[in-house]
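step 4 of 6: structure.
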Amino acid sequence: MKILKKTKEALIKTISKARAKIKLRLPKKSPPPRQRVAQEAKEAPSFYETAISNTKFSHAQEGYFTPLRAQDLPHTYDHDRIILQVRDPRWLHTYWEMREQTVQSFKGSLGENFYRAKKVLRVYDVTNVIFNGANANRFFDIQINDFANSWYIDTNGPGRAWCVDLGLMLPDGRFITLLRSNVVQTPLDGPSWVTDEEWMIPDEMFARLYGMGFGLGKSSPVGGAWQERIKQGLFSSGLSSSPVKKEVKERSFWMKVDCELIVYGATEPDAKVTVQGVPIKLRPDGTFTLRYYLPDGKQFIPVKAVSADAIDERTITPIVTRETK
Amino acid sequence: MHKGYLCLVLHGHLPFVRHPEHENFLEEDWLYEAITETYVPLLSVFQGLVDDGIDFRITMTLSPTLVSMLSDALLEERYLRHINKLVELAGKEIERTKWQPEFSSLAQMYHRRFTHARETFQRYNSNLVLAFKKFQDLGKLEIITCGATHGFFPLMDVCRPSVRAQVKVAADHYEANFGRRPRGIWLPECGYCPGHDEILKEAGIRYFFTDSHGVLHGTPRPKYGVFAPVYCKGSGVAAFGRDLESSKQVWSSIEGYPGDYNYREFYRDIGFDLEFDYIKPYIHPDGVRINTGIKYYRITGNTNHKEPYVAEWAKEKAAEHAGNFMFNRQKQAGYLNDLMGKAPIIVSPYDAELFGHWWYEGPLWLDFLFRKIACDQDEISLITPAEYLDRNPRNQVVTPSFSSWGYKGYSEMWLQGSNDWIYRHLHLASSRMTELARNNPQANGLKRRALNQALRELLLAQSSDWGFILGTGTHTSYAIRRTKDHLLRFTRLYEDINANNIDGNWLADIEYKDNLFPDIDYQVHQ
């Protein structure tokens, strides 16, 4: 049990530490060196995968999109509802909407109190209970502003069931529920403590399998050197969080220059033309255009035309020199 | 001696991007690039193995939206136009780079590959679904389905009828295309919520995948970790957990293969590098520079300085990396076999489009890996999940944990400041769809068409790709438009159906635009 707990805590710590360091910045258009992604990704595969997955949706220059007509979605749907959903083992997200009619009726029944009340979200821990409004294991309140219509809630409670009321806290301490959400369940943030008899597993063995699942298995013979690097990576990322460290910004100014050569001409449309000995195709009017990347050095470009009856022949040879300093 | 199984899974998916109303639509390139760079090269690998008598197994998602696009006549025709232009461009490049042998050989390589892609495409009657089906029928490839439009199920949990519709529409679509029910499903983004397995069971699906922590954090504790599937409590549907070690070997920034300096650099494309007038006919008609797929450089190193790509070196690296991957799986399987006292299954899933597209040498690596596994050793063997379950029917019963394979492992990629606004609209549309299905149990004619189209629009709005693009924060305008367009179409249909005032012309127009799932039945949204 000890071993498992230690491993688990260490794992969660190291993993969350690694993740905390990552800012979600994804590669932009050229020239976005992949190294930047790689460096920031450290050892969180899901980040790296996200960045790479984004390349599947390749895009043109920034800001360009195919113009479509613009139309907006309604701001409200004239409903009374509050929806709760799970973001991760710790955080919930809720959004709500109230009909004007409903607001008016609360105003009517609460009178002056309505205006003096504070708007709050009451978050109930309803794990293992069928919630009736009064039997929660515990609850806590979050004061919100009048204009909010959604909120992220830090429950700090993995593996528990939650329900949220949007409500009013009256000056006399009474709480009035305006809307009640659905119930959600946050996942565990580690292995379950429940084991089943038929499929018992010693803790130490599970710790090894668990570690391997995350690619960190201490006893796994696989990728030993790689594990060392992860440890180093985590260690150095810990250091870099120190505020003393100055970020050296990589300067990104750049320039490039290339040369291309266009060779063009014309002859009788039915003539046979070769350039540097290679036959080329003429346009129907007897003209031609060729385009080459021009490397440094001297290029001899003999252009030879032979008449259709093979009697006349002309050769013209441009000589081009490129020198780059 | 046999030690364990390796289950390779490629998740093939693209959102439905089809815009008949525009002659040239930039985002359709996602499909064209994937055909040229991923699907055709993978099919060529499969064909080569079959020709050489090499036995192999691979599991692959073909998402319903991808299948719909691959078998759509308009997109097929546009792909041909696209690949014809690429062949032409590569031809011009061979000439332009005449005095630069290191580039001209690459131009020739692209010319060969593009020509081959065109031939392959035409050989299968312009429908690559038939090509994939062929390898499934040969018993080498197990094609699995996905959510109908790749909706992220955990954030649809408050409207389970939509989860059901995603699964049922997908399973029926699969059957229509592949001639049998799907055995497995790739839950979009690996997003699993306890209870959704019941919906899979209703659709006759036997297994799905989760990320590692989906199984590892299941209750009760899974005896074999992720190295054996578990049966979901209640439904009995099997869940296979991802092995992160083999995933990291491909994707890790440190050890990951695709970052090797000999491999092709993704970001240097002649669409951006070459002189404007020359490249203009091959980029967007509005003069917007785009990737053409012709890339001449290798990763080279850590700076912006890039050296020309050398195909031979990259090939050697791919072979070396395949050997390394296999060696590590042998060691892993041997170790696990001792620990577990039985043969482990190592599940290694990857996004299919990253093979060939991002990691240009990915298909080649896969080819080497298959050949080495078949010829060089007998410790690990390839297997599909269905085969594994047939051979190992007895597995532990566990409730897997809510999880996804996205950033941070849960819902955050699709639920953050930049994209959380969509759920207010999506959830409401879901409940309206349920209401429509309930209030119109037996609609006919125009009304039936409107109800079916309402479900199509809802499904299209639910694609996790829109939320993903919004979450990455780059080039979000298209994702916003798509979310809004489908929701607005849905809302108008909802209102028109309720008012019994359906505009037949407008309905025909959106049926023509959003034409996927021809056999959809709105009654599945219950």
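step 5 of 6: annotate
 - The radius of gyration of chain A is 35 Å.
 - The domain at 260-322 of chain A is CATH 2.60.40.10 (Immunoglobulin-like).
step 6 of 6: archive
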